[in-house]
Specification:
Length: about 250
């Protein structure tokens, strides 16, 4: 089985994000970049599927600048077999990303596309669903358990009311939720092997895909700073403040 795992480069969750003065984006100076945590979970699940089946190939794909090689190498060090980097300097919206991935799927012919449910920087949660629609493949989003046997995939997914179990025949698209697994760390031998694994670069302009953005970012704003807390002298005073100031009771 061949599994394609798209990944995205995002700021480390522990990094302090600063918005540019003109609101056009974030300041990238001194920002540590990592694999999107949900995509890292997808890599881990793809590796587990391959290990359980005893054979197969896990192919990583990223769409961005040359600097994204670092995150792809991290995924290769975890155990992925090879990687593809579609080079573009322009930021792409969800629709353009889905179109690029559709072209990669046509070229690679994977049985499964396994990706994070959303990226932690924009939280769009759109690319997996768009890709499945473009391919005409069944999909399962927010997966917390995945089992594959005899060409059929059974997924437990998290919904508002609890858990839902669905099944479909491959090929298909799955997006991973937080509780699907705990990603492994890249071992030293894995890091050494990753240096020799194939990392292919493809110019986005040469794919013949419409990359025209349909979404326009107008402005970014930092959230307001939290006000300092204050101590109250009694329960009666707390109730009064909650009633007159906070207006929650």
């Amino acid at each position: 089985m061949k599994i394609l795992v798209p990944i995205k480069r995002v700021p480390d969750p522990a990094t302090t994000i600063r918005v540019l003065p003109d609101g056009s984006g974030i300041a990238v100076d001194n920002v540590k970049w990592v694999i999107n945590p949900f995509d890292e979970i997808a890599i881990e699940e793809a590796l587990r599927i391959k290990e359980k089946q005893g054979a197969g190939e896990v192919v990583l794909a990223a769409i961005g600048q040359s600097a994204w090689q670092e995150q792809l190498r991290t995924g290769l060090a975890m155990g992925a077999d090879r990687a593809i980097l579609v080079i573009t300097d322009a930021p792409l919206d969800s629709l353009a990303l889905a179109r690029v991935l559709k072209k990669l799927v046509a070229d690679e012919q994977p049985e499964l596309v396994l990706m994070g449910k959303q990226a932690i920087d924009d939280d769009s949660n759109q690319v997996g669903q768009m890709l499945a629609e473009m391919l005409g493949w069944p999909q399962a989003t927010f997966a917390s358990k995945v089992e594959i046997a005899d060409g059929k995939c059974t997924i437990v997914r998290e919904v508002d009311g609890g858990l839902e179990t669905i099944a479909f025949a491959l090929p298909g698209v799955i997006t991973s939720d937080l509780r699907l697994n705990e990603p492994r760390y890249a071992s030293l031998p894995g890091i050494m092997k990753a240096r020799k694994k194939e990392l292919k670069e493809i110019p986005a302009a040469g794919l013949g895909v419409d990359l025209t953005p349909r979404l326009k970012l107008k402005e970014l704003k930092a959230p307001p700073k939290r006000q300092a807390g204050r101590k109250l002298g009694s329960v009666q005073e707390l109730v009064q403040v909650l009633h007159t100031e906070a207006k929650v009771i």
